[in-house]
């Protein structure tokens, strides 16, 4: 019996006649934070809803801790934060969280949880009077109810200010440390770059990448950018000798593959006094995302 | 069941907070009192006490008002949550869809019961104070309150079914208005037309009473009328009631909420949030 928090095999999902998910395989280990990236309509939310058992899938299998999606065991093991979460405006944050705790069958410290997400003062106010960020925090509080084995967060940082984002990732790390598998669907590339263990990219319902950031970088073979600052009027000479491109009066930009990087650096060093400074820019997640989601393919 | 109670508690809070409970009670109270006073004139001619007359007119009132109040609460049950975007999260919790509907039903039914008891109870008390009441008319009042709650239950679950089937809360509201019109007004008009066309033939003799009792609103009326002779006398519905066995109307009114609830659950299970 396989008890990994999430195991998806060859998942197919059709919406009418269009296939929105094509043979998706995906696993998350306990304590792992996975970023699920993709354009709007790439199938991220559909995938999450299929894992929650809210929509039926046509092919393949999904197992949450060995249980079928939508089963009582799977629902008890899963926490979910929907995109742009909303609640009934007439209830207070405290009442709403109490309802969720009762539904989950948890004897939770409601006040403590609300304090934890920074809603201590607002917990007895109606949700109708909450800001978007406060609703998102309340959504996060319900994720922390019980000890989920799998947390599915759909665009968790949308509508949050930078400080709240820091808090959010601190809470996500806490979840992962407790052994929860965390899936974060996001657009915010720079954010998830440093804060997740693995990255999966969906493009038009197809998984086009699934690896660590380092693994994706070496597979993609994207060029490293070397920015050479010339001293005096040597920029032209450096540009012709290295085959680089002048980007302003005193700088030259050279693109080289990761393997040729050291050779290139030695050649530049050989130019002696003509070079004043060198900056090295490795490919960022944004470049990788463009590469894998097919935007830079002509 | 514990989960259904959790939903019911939250729904009850919502009904209290958005003044639904207050408004529904106020409406029931205002109409019931108005009818009791307006309908107090024919007491002497029929030889029954004032509470009986009052119950007869409130029966007619309840046929219109109970389904209306119930549908107004019911249409939002699924569609409202889906429009707001909170349905997906609710369904991700380990509560079955049947449990969710049951929880909502308990809260909505409790709210209706409060409105009915206060509205009809107050009107009945006023009628009894001014015109006297007997054991039979008190029974009739009790029966009116209970059957009104049952009638409300029918239209609550029908409201849930419409709410689950329609594309949004606005569409559900429109459909609910249509259902109210059909069950409460058009159905009777259609039957009336059929009876006139048939002019006392087989349809009027054999089929008509059964078709009539199949409609929960008419079953409600028949039950109240058939059970109390004096109410029948003062509401002029004795004819149809006597053509049916005594269990027909109660059976219809008890069966409808169950079937409606099953229908609502089936519709809700098909919803993909």
From TrEMBL, chain A:
- A single MF term (Gene Ontology): ATP hydrolysis activity
Please report a single Pfam family linked to this protein.
ABC_tran
Q: SUPFAM superfamilies, per this entry?
A: P-loop containing nucleoside triphosphate hydrolases
Q: Which Gene3D superfamilies match?
A: P-loop containing nucleotide triphosphate hydrolases
Q: What class of enzyme is it?
A: hydrolase
Query: EC number(s) per UniProt?
Result: 3.6.3.-
Report the residue ranges that make up the ABC transporter domain in this protein.
6-229
Q: Which UniProt keywords apply?
A: ATP-binding, Hydrolase, Nucleotide-binding, Transport
Domain of life of the native organism: Bacteria
Spell out the protein name for this chain.
Putative ABC transporter ATP-binding protein YxlF
Organism (species) = Leisingera aquaemixtae
Q: Which gene encodes it?
A: yxlF_2
UniProtKB/TrEMBL annotation, chain B:
Q: Which GO terms describe its molecular function?
A: ABC-type transporter activity
Q: Which GO cellular component terms are attached?
A: plasma membrane
Source superkingdom: Bacteria
Keyword annotations for this protein, in alphabetical order, are: Membrane, Transmembrane, Transmembrane helix
Query: Membrane-spanning regions, if any?
Result: 50-75, 109-132, 144-165, 177-197, 247-268
Q: Name it.
A: ABC transporter permease
From what organism does this protein derive?
Leisingera aquaemixtae
């Amino acid at each position: 019996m396989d008890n990994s928090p999430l195991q998806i095999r060859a998942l197919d999902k059709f919406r009418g006649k269009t296939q929105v998910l094509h043979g998706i395989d995906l696993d998350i280990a306990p304590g792992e934070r996975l970023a699920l990236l993709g354009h709007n309509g790439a199938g991220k939310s559909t995938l999450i809803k299929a894992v929650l058992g809210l929509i039926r899938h046509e092919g393949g299998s999904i197992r949450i801790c060995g249980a079928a999606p939508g089963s009582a065991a799977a629902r008890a093991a899963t926490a979910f934060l929907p995109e742009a979460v909303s609640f009934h405006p007439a209830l207070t944050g405290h009442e709403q969280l109490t309802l969720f705790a009762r539904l989950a069958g948890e004897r939770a410290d409601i006040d403590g949880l609300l304090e934890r997400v920074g809603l201590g003062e607002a917990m007895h106010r109606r949700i109708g009077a909450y800001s978007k960020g406060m609703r998102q925090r309340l959504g996060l509080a319900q994720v922390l109810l019980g000890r989920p084995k799998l947390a599915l967060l759909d665009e968790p940082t949308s509508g949050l200010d930078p400080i709240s984002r820091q808090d959010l990732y601190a809470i996500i790390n806490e979840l992962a440390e407790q052994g929860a598998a965390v899936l974060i669907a996001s657009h915010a590339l720079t954010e998830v770059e440093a804060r997740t263990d693995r990255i999966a990219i969906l493009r038009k319902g197809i998984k086009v990448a699934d690896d660590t950031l380092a693994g994706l970088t070496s597979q993609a073979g994207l060029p490293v950018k070397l920015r050479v600052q010339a001293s005096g009027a040597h920029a032209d000479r450096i540009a012709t000798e290295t085959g680089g491109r002048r980007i302003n009066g005193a700088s030259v930009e050279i693109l080289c593959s990761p393997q040729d990087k050291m050779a290139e650096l030695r050649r530049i060093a050989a130019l002696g006094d003509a070079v004043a400074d060198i900056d090295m820019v490795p490919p960022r997640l944004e470049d990788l995302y463009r590469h894998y989601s097919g935007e830079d393919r002509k | 069941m514990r989960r259904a109670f959790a939903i019911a508690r939250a729904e009850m809070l919502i009904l209290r907070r958005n003044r639904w409970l207050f408004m529904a009670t106020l409406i029931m109270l205002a109409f019931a009192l108005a009818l009791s006073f307006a309908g107090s004139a024919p007491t002497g001619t029929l030889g029954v006490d004032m509470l009986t007359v009052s119950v007869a007119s409130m029966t007619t009132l309840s046929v219109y008002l109970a389904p209306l109040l119930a549908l107004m609460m019911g249409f939002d049950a699924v569609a409202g949550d889906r429009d707001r975007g909170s349905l997906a999260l609710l369904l991700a919790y380990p509560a079955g869809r049947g449990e969710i509907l049951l929880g909502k039903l308990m809260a909505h039914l409790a709210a209706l019961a409060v409105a009915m008891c206060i509205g009809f109870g107050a009107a009945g008390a006023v009628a009894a104070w001014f015109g006297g009441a007997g054991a039979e008319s008190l029974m009739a009042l009790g029966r009116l309150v209970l059957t009104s709650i049952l009638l409300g239950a029918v239209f609550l679950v029908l409201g849930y079914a419409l709410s689950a089937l329609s594309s949004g809360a606005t569409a559900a509201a429109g459909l609910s208005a249509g259902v109210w019109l059909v069950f409460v007004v058009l159905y009777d008009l259609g039957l009336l037309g059929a009876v006139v066309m048939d002019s006392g033939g087989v349809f009027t003799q054999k089929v008509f009473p059964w078709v009539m009792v199949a409609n929960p609103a008419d079953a409600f009326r028949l039950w109240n009328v058939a059970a109390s002779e004096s109410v029948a006398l003062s509401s002029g519905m004795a004819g149809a009631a006597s053509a049916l066995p005594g269990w027909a109307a109660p059976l219809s009114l008890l069966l409808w909420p169950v079937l409606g609830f099953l229908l609502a659950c089936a519709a809700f299970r098909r919803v993909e949030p």
